[in-house]
Specification:
The complex is a heterodimer. By secondary structure, chain A is an alpha+beta fold. Chain A has two helices and five strands, in the order βαβαβββ. Chain A is 22% helix and 28% strand. Chain B is built from four helices and nine strands; from the N terminus they run βαβββαβββαββα. The chains are: A alpha+beta, B alpha+beta.
């Protein structure tokens, strides 16, 4: 299946892209998507304990199962206001 | 259908316009909070800020904050507008308007909203200061974290 990954703030800068596409096995979890980024981009693992995630613009868990066409977002610690 | 109460925008914010969205004849109180870009942070001289948001989730998060506040203070109305893009010193980054028949609930809900925005809204500030730049990173955004929610309520009483 193919998914779109959205990255923000420092994660976006470290990866060099706000949006990347990935192919994952059917039924893969959000964590599998994250792990693929950790393997690819230096510095991402620093965020493994603090990153939040969303699927199709709703908050999700790392254990959430993904479907073809999903948009996954990884959110570093926030600083709005 | 977008909800005019909850917006992320690159346009300049207008506190009166945000207040008017939730004002009504039965509301005797309008509490507004305006977050403004400051020229100093942690000993650094700030030059400007760049705000970034995951906009659809940020707007949903504002609606969620309204639902949470409404459970505690059923009489309130709440509007939250947050700006993104480059902001100069003195620019408003966020405007919150809380309305209620009486002032206590309006003040409390307004305070609650800004505390929750800082905890869970998917928005980031990139600080450009004299000599460098840094992404400000605060709380891990977890709306299900009940301890964080209790801490936000504790600020309001």
């Amino acid at each position: 299946m193919h998914i779109t990954i959205r990255l923000f703030a420092r994660l976006r800068e470290m990866s060099g892209a706000g949006e990347v596409r990935r192919s994952l096995p059917d039924g893969a979890s959000v964590r599998a998507a994250w792990d693929s980024l950790v393997n690819e981009f230096p510095g991402f693992d620093d965020y493994s304990k603090v990153v939040a995630c969303a699927v199709n613009a709703d908050y999700a868990r790392m254990t959430t199962a993904l479907s073809d066409g999903d948009e996954v977002a990884f959110l570093p610690p926030v600083s709005g206001g | 259908m977008p909800d005019a109460r909850f917006r992320v925008t690159s346009d300049r914010l207008d506190a009166n316009a945000v207040s008017s969205i939730v004002s009504s004849p039965d509301c005797g109180a309008v509490a507004t909070f305006i977050g403004v870009v400051r020229d100093e942070n942690g000993g650094r001289r700030v030059l400007w800020l760049e705000y970034e948001a995951y906009e659809p989730l940020a707007e949903k998060t504002f609606a969620r904050i309204d639902e949470e506040a409404g459970e505690r203070w059923p009489s309130i109305g709440l509007a939250i507008h947050h700006r993104v893009g480059r902001l100069e010193i003195g620019d408003a980054s966020v405007v919150i308007a809380a309305t209620s028949p009486h002032r206590a609930e309006a003040f409390a809900a307004c305070r609650y909203a800004i505390e929750r925005i800082k905890q869970i809204a998917p928005i980031w500030k990139h600080e450009h200061f004299e000599g460098g730049e840094i992404w400000i990173e605060g709380a891990t955004a977890d709306p299900a974290d009940e301890d964080a929610r209790r801490m936000a309520f504790a600020q309001c009483t």
